[in-house]
Amino acid sequence: MDLAKDLKFLDDESTPYSLSVTGSSGRGIVLVEHLNNADSTLINGYDVMIGGQNISILTAQSTQALLVFEDSNNDLMFQPNEKFSMVELRLFSSDEVINVEIGLKKTNVPEQLVNKPLKKITQY
What we know:
With 124 residues, this protein is mostly beta strands. 12% of the residues lie in helices and 38% in strands.
């Protein structure tokens, strides 16, 4: 294992982002799923927030969108009755804090990810 090589790979192949998430009830975890685009049926990574509003994440350079949702029943699956927001990363730079407000929405629900367990939609 070559730590210097691994660190160079992370620098070359990933992008850091900072998120500030509001709208969570605080009763469940907040999942951040990394997507190649907003219509992706698979995710290329994910992060979990427990008891907080701010998180720093590291995404693959191919990541173009984030699905941020409160997993109110802690089953690691997105359901339409859960608060969510879709974030298009092209609208932000990696050196700014991205303010994400999650809420219940009837439109723009990412149907391709509804009721899909993480292990079935993770692309590795």
